[in-house]
User: What shape does this take?
Amino acid sequence: MLRSYLPAIVFLLLGAGVGAAFTTLNSVLGPKRQIEHKADPYECGLPSEIKQGFRFGISFYLIAMLFILFDIEVLFLYPVAVQLRAFGSFALVETIVFIALLFVAFVYVWRRGALEWR
Amino acid sequence: MLSTVPTVLADVRYFEPWWIQILKGIVIFAVGLQLVPIVLLAERKLLGRFQQRYGPNRVGPFGAIQPLADILKLLTKEQFRPRTSIGWLFALAPIVSIITAVAAFAIIPFGNTVDIFGTRVGLYGVDVSIGPLYLFAFGAVAFYGIMLGGWASGSKYSFLGAMRAAAQLISYEVSQGLALIGVVMTAGTLSLTGIVEAQQGMWYIVPQAVGFIVFLVASFAETNRAPFDLVEADAELVGGYNTEYGGGRFASYFFAEYLNVLVVSGVVTTVFLGGWLLPFGIDPPTWVDPFVVLAKMSIFVLFFIWVRATLPRLRYDQLMSLGWKILLPLATLNALVTAILVVVTH
Assistant: This one.
């Protein structure tokens, strides 16, 4: 099981190595001149008023929920797509029904204005 | 001998002994590592020319070692982070970005199997039997790299950039996935080498032209490249998710971005442009194959740069309506029409 994925594991390790090197080398090679205002978050020159856990627009969460819906569509279509020739017209009819149902959901979401960015 | 291992993981076809697998991983990774500075230099040079200036031409002949100078400069900067940031997440996020980009690079096939010293070696990292799904899986994890980085920075602009990145990446991932379904139906396999072999008669860019266009547009959005670079829109968000990053961590975000451009070019080449196949029945010896793939990849990399120099950035609502109202229905329609054609002509 590990054998077949060995090259992918090599890639993961090498990627992690390069990433770790990039992330840590600065503290070895770079100068260390820490002053107080260097640690301020960027704010166009004004004193920052950042607090952890501030609130954010609901539109982003809505998009995330839509994503789950349609990404499941994609996931269901992949196995059918691979075996489409073997199953023939049976799979075709099933796919058409499936996409038609999703189309209804899509039209509903669109008409309710979930796709409008506000 | 063909070996497959039944596991909970997807099957992987492989022929080599273990030490060749490790060696080949290192070699392909080294090639990828070398391609990134070349793409970087090509982009700066070409953007310069597009804007009627020279671009880098001071470091080395024709500015050829400019990327090396850049990386040295970045790595000798001081390490610091904002007071409001979450230390370990702030450090981890760029590593996540880079790991996912490198891991995705592993599935690009540069050729079929060749005989090297009497053993069969596949000219690809892994030929996993779920090719595109592997790509989307790492694409989805790559999203955490940007999201965590922006969120853990503890800065307004980083957070805004990260939220935009989140919404943009998930919106376009759906279209990207759907665009490939037509190809999968036509080829009847998910293995990337299998998809290339299925294109012997005709490259899929011809019968799957709609899928190709949808996939290409979605890929621009997935790699956060112009005109979809709202994630780091410098005019409004300073630098987006990487506002607070500097030095090597900033470099690793950029390394990941350029490697992602290469990965996407490689996948488009493999899936729509026939990978290592040449048109008109030209069949060169096997050692030419990787160069064919690299040449086709460079076409797309140049296209990425050209588009960046040409198109202005989209507005955020335009970005969202393009993804959901145009690309998604178009990709679904493409899948449906392809399904009907495949079954009827079979």
